[in-house]
């Protein structure tokens, strides 16, 4: 069975890390498979939202540092300087963060190191009440990766980001919710259902408008620039069939039936 499972249903793509015996530690084949599925989702109009999760009670224990064949690096290609290895993995995380379709991380068990970076690169995070998060790098004598030097301070504030990064301690689900690291905490048995509910709502939403909203909220810039970007985004949204359907549904007092067009 594949180390990365991909399921599609009515516009929702569910991607599952599938090495439960290794707590879903990410090896070379998983990096390459994730890279491939992100390309598919980006370019296929039938793919309208994505869930990233893990099997066997864990999201992922991070990079499998011993999981590549001899003579190859993290992503299975010929070994090269670490800076280039990290850039290759970082590009995949960046592509997830910049995916022009909404994403949900469903986190059970541990999300450690670069796996935490992948979760934080998603737009929304729902986790189980037994989830735990850690920036473990400092305990290995390493710096940060997975984009967490950017995502953590923006999502939980600089001082709390430094606390996680300096000590490498685990953050439990309840504290993660209090700090704003995750959107919602649910019982472990309800995690898949909760993630699917959010994913399906996103997959049946106005895909182009959601993409524009995502870009607006992720942007860095001044208030003046935000107003200009909003004007341009609204202009684009006005050209979509989903906008016409949204207005018509409002006038007819019914729920809209968005198609992503």
UniProtKB/TrEMBL annotation:
InterPro entries noted in UniProt: ClpP/crotonase-like_dom_sf, Enoyl-CoA_hydra/iso, Enoyl-CoA_hydra_C
Record SUPFAM superfamilies: ClpP/crotonase
CDD domains: crotonase-like (cd06558)
UniProt xrefs under Pfam families: ECH_1
Signal peptide: none
Gene Ontology MF terms in the entry: isomerase activity
Keywords noted in UniProt: Isomerase
Family label: Belongs to the enoyl-CoA hydratase/isomerase family.
Protein name in the entry: 2-(1,2-epoxy-1,2-dihydrophenyl)acetyl-CoA isomerase PaaG
Organism in which the protein naturally occurs: Cryptosporangium minutisporangium
């Amino acid at each position: 069975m594949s180390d990365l499972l991909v399921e599609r249903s009515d516009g929702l793509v569910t991607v599952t890390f599938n090495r439960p015996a290794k707590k879903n530690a990410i090896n070379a084949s998983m990096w390459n498979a994730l890279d491939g599925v992100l390309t598919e989702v980006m370019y296929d109009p039938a793919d309208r939202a994505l869930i990233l999760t893990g099997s066997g009670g864990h999201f992922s224990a991070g990079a499998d540092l011993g999981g590549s064949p001899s003579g190859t690096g993290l992503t299975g290609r010929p070994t090269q300087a670490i800076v280039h290895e990290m850039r290759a993995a970082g590009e995949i995380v960046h592509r997830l963060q910049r995916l022009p379709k909404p994403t949900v991380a469903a986190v059970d068990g541990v999300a450690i190191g670069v796996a935490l970076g992948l979760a934080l690169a998603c737009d929304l995070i729902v986790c189980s009440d037994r989830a735990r998060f850690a920036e473990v790098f400092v305990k290995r004598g390493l710096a940060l990766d997975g984009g967490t030097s950017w995502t953590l301070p923006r999502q939980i504030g600089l001082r709390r980001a430094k606390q996680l990064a300096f000590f490498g301690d685990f953050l439990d689900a309840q504290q993660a919710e209090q700090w704003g690291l995750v959107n919602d905490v649910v019982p472990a048995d309800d995690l898949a259902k909760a993630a699917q509910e959010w994913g399906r709502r996103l997959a049946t939403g106005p895909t182009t408008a959601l993409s524009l909203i995502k870009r607006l909220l992720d942007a860095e810039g001044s208030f003046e620039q935000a107003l200009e970007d909003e004007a341009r985004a609204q202009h684009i949204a006005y050209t979509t069939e989903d906008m016409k359907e949204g207005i018509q549904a409002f006038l007819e007092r019914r729920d809209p039936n968005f198609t992503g067009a």
